Amino acid sequence: MKKIVIALVTLIAFAACTDNFIETNQNPYQISDELLKQDFNLVGSPFSNMIFNLNGHQIEEDLCSDNWMGYMGTPTDFVGNVNNTTYYIRWNTYWNRVYGSVMSPSKQVIQLAKDNNLPMFATWAKLIRIFAVSKLTGVHGPVIYSQYGTTANSIAYDKESDLYPLFFKQLDSIQTDFNANKEYTGYKKFDPSQYGGSIPRWQKLVNSLRLRLAMRISKVDPAMAKTQGEKALADPAGLITTNADNFINSLNGNKIPVAQICYEWDDTRMGAVMESFLVGLKDGRISKYFAPMTNAALYADHPSVPYKGVRNGAYIKAKADHVPFSKVSEDFQTVQTRRNFTAAEVAFLKAEAGLRGWTGAGDPKTNYEEGIKLSFADWGAGGVDAYLADATSKPISYVDPIDARNNFTAASTITVAWNNADSNELKLEKIITQKYLNTFTNTQEAWVDFRRTGYPKIPPVAKNDSNGDWGVITANEWIKRMPFVNAERTGNTAAVADAVSKMGTGAKDDIATRLWWDTGKAANF
């Protein structure tokens, strides 16, 4: 399998010499400590790479949450068609990305910021840490966080129920620092996002992240969730409410992974679940996400809409069979940024918060419709007013013209139009489904929402290869988590055993063990 090679942060060469020696003998190709101190380079340069590594590539995303949630489907029969997409774990590397490319350099930044009296850079690094580890814990459950950097032979994992209060406490401290330094401009040169180093814009991300994490624990600890969610909603710094304030970061000159995997390697295609929702609901975003096809025989089940996707966990006989299916839109060929948090997501979070009775959330219908409008505008799609008014169109069942074993009947029967007479459960299904459709190219949080709420309603994998090696997922069920990485299993064995015990009675380090906030309860209210 081809994998993108991501450059890690260049190690800083330290030279301690007399001033005169530096002036006369400085290697012109070596960056000295003194030169790096200019304009805060010493602590600022790692941020571009740390933020870049908040997201993964083919084996962390495309062959995991992209496929599990039906955004994309692989036409390639990797490892004899027994792999992550069919619930037999072959690749498990997001852990290494977070610890090697976020946690490790952030530790150095925090120390350098302390040594050089640049505390605001330590604050920024701590925020990036929370963002990264909050994603990582959504993959594995317990993770190494509060004890990270210790030199003990066995490094303990944090229990999930301890992690979230710690995240919230640290977000409090970060926001306090930001409030006291709103005019600070030290980040500007190093900020790879569209925020341009603006502290007030980063403050909106802090509140939005707090709201996301509060909602994540809303079923397992509703009191804490409500307290933290209402704090985010009430904070004067505000939330991400316009597309201009979306958290979009640079890929440092790299093409967005889904385009590379699709166009250069032919290893991913449109997902059948997305076909079911986008075609069925007459969604104008379909042409912004995917490229139309020319072979009408492949989309004969809806001949006026020229798109066809690959089933999640599909039966794949030969790569050539499904390669003709829909690629992502050609527009992605020139995209070198990633959406990490959008105003649409915040609107959908507020819509759900309204259903849950959180003060300051606003009207669920207003927020739901605003989320859809923001999403359509963000993706450049038209027809949003007709879409919002559509009370008849529903997701369609899926037909694979190559292999009927991949067919499925649509489980969801929702329409787009809001109806105040609907139950809260049905309203939540609509909110999460639209949140799902907006979150294309940033699919890990959709996997969290699915495990947390059961929405959107998607089919199980067509081909289930789970077994005792990595855990058994029973028929009509879905993967719950990723196991801890093998390096931890063999090199931090006692801590891994302790981490598994922290996941509850009967827990195993397998793909069938639920995370703390995944209560397994079908009812959300």
UniProtKB/TrEMBL annotation:
Residues 1-18 form the signal peptide. This is Susd and RagB outer membrane lipoprotein. It comes from the Bacteria. It comes from Dyadobacter endophyticus. Keywords: Signal.
